Amino acid sequence: LCIMETCPSCSVTILSDQFSPNTTSDVAAGMLIPHTYPDSPINVQKQWFKDTFTYLFAISNSAEASEAGIQLVSGWQIFKNTPKEELPFWSDVVLGFRPMSEAELQKFPQHRFGQAFTTLKCDCPPYLLWLEKRLKATGVQMYTRKVLDLWELHSEYNIVVNCAGIGAHQLVGDEKLFPVRGQVLKVNAPWVKHFIRDGDGLTYIYPGINRVTLGGTREKERWSLDPDPSTTKDIFDRCCLLEPSLQGAQDIKVKVGLRPSRESVRLQREILSQGGVKLPVVHNYGHGAGGFAMHRGTAKEAARLVRECIAALQDSSSRAKL
Ligand SMILES: Cc1cc2nc3c(=O)[nH]c(=O)nc-3n(C[C@H](O)[C@H](O)[C@H](O)COP(=O)(O)OP(=O)(O)OC[C@H]3O[C@@H](n4cnc5c(N)ncnc54)[C@H](O)[C@@H]3O)c2cc1C
Ligand SMILES: O=C([O-])CC(=O)C(=O)O
């Protein structure tokens, strides 16, 4: 979508071996609470988050909000001990960030410190469908196809944008990319309106427009997509400790996804070349646990890189004509 917005004369085709609802993005909780990428400058991460927050905030304030699955949600991030960083880099992007009051903390006897704020949440499958609808309306073609090697696309396309998520491990052999397996439960508990996140990042309760997401797990380098029943019970018990009313939750569905993790998002241009033929590639993958929190900001940057590739192609073709 960002490419179509920045370069409306481009013709864009999406190739993917899986579409919604069978992607990692369909599993995500879709909360806008950033995770830090150790190897990306904080000011850059803050800009990606700001761009994403601003974009989704506008949707949440529009009549599209419910179809797009976007809503504002208020709640608490709680800590057993005061964290080193009391003011995270994103604290002035979310709304109304403040320390929790004593009265709020009384709800969590095992925790001593907390942050209260309002952020945005995407219900991921409806949001992905909403994006797909907008893509189709701009004339973008979508085909189911597994790409084995980016080079196989050189005779059909001028520029390739690689957004393969964890699939980039195989597609471009990126050894720096690894899965962090996550299991979550999607439950019916419409009385839960506030989010609760344990600051250790393991346990969270995120109410969305339709369902509440209960999490979670972080298992580095584990590739299995099979739900683990003992983990399901463990997640449920941990969440009930924080919000005992969840004992009454109904219709529990279990989902597993592989976070495409890296020390930094790979957001860069590369020129592939074989026998004098060149194929410009823009990589945009490796969003780890923050693909929703950062998606619009990183997509805007990827679209800017595509524009640079177009300018370079135009430049070399006009030189060839001289
Ligand atoms: C349990 C869990 C909870 C999460 N919660 C949050 C959260 O609250 N907030 C947040 O910001 N993030 C969250 N995330 C992280 C988020 O899900 C990811 O960062 C994001 O989904 C990555 O998006 P992506 O588009 O890069 O990858 P994907 O959604 O995996 O999309 C990649 C696409 O590329 C296709 N593809 C891959 N390889 C090929 C190939 N060779 N040929 C053709 N097509 C290919 C795939 O089929 C897929 O359609 C969570 C993740 C998990 C697992
Ligand atoms: O940590 C969270 O709050 C949710 C999330 O992004 C994940 O599980 O990856």
From TrEMBL:
Positions annotated to bind FAD: T24, S25, V147
The organism's place on the tree of life at top rank: Eukaryota
Gene3D superfamilies: D-Amino Acid Oxidase, subunit A, domain 2, NAD(P)-binding Rossmann-like Domain
GO terms assigned for molecular function: D-aspartate oxidase activity; FAD binding
Cofactor(s) recorded in Swiss-Prot or TrEMBL: FAD
Keyword match Mitochondrion: no
Protein name (database record): D-aspartate oxidase
Native source species: Colius striatus (Speckled mousebird)
Lineage: Eukaryota, Metazoa, Chordata, Craniata, Vertebrata
